[in-house]
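Possible race condition, two jobs.
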Amino acid sequence: MNIVKLQLTWACRIEHVASGFYLSLSKRYSKKEDIAKTLGRFSRDELKHGVLFGKAYHETYGGELITGPWTFLGKTMGFIQFAVPLRWKLKTLSVVESLALSLLKKELHSERTNPYRDVLRKIQGDEERHASFYHSLYGSCSSGR
């Protein structure tokens, strides 16, 4: 399989999982307005990213990627973690978002362009904002803290 096709497919799926997960957490913590609002915004960002990867896939390879089950999976993952303390969830998301940002930056070091990298360039600001939010809560998580 073409590597770019695989990257677009998986990125689209992961972004939809993340959107569902953030949405689930946003609803779960609706009484903590500041957190709920931030997680809701992140959910919308991740959905937008998934749509961009899906659109790039469609424009490059034709066909549509199925996204509904992936969003549902993310919502389910958020729901089944109801007993996990919010701080632990946010710390885990901090590590995940930091890792995603480092992978994004590494991928963008390549001089060659392709549809996957084009989308990464478009979403880089959002991903930096997400990682920055967690950094403000917990500091750098890339060092294993």
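Job #2 (started ~2 s after job #1):
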Amino acid sequence: MPAVYGIDLIAKRDKKIKMDRSIVKCWNVHYQTLEEVEEETRRKKKKEAEEARKNAEQLAEEDEEDEEKSSSKQGAAKKGKTDAAYNRKTGAYSGHYGTIPVDDEEKKQQIHAILNEKPEPFESAMSAIQAQG
């Protein structure tokens, strides 16, 4: 009876090197059955349909937002605000901040509290600037 030898690490390494250098690699070959191909096409069609539905929903939401923005722009234009002062990044007419007097008493108190929160550092900074000048 011939001797049977086990595969050692060197033989495994040599086999791996041979497979890596070969043109057709055994792990890249997969024979698909007809059922597998049909199932894959069904999955692709279903995924595309879901993506199309999501895109349609997003477009509808964007259209609604655009309509709301245009109506708010028209309302702001009626109040005397121009498109030149409109800031698209913040979605507000930030060019008019501080130009209109505050009428609400609660807002006036908030502004006063914020501005007078730390008067000492402000006064010391102002005196340092005046001393340099």
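The helical segments are 9-21, 34-78, 105-115, 119-132.
Logs attached separately.
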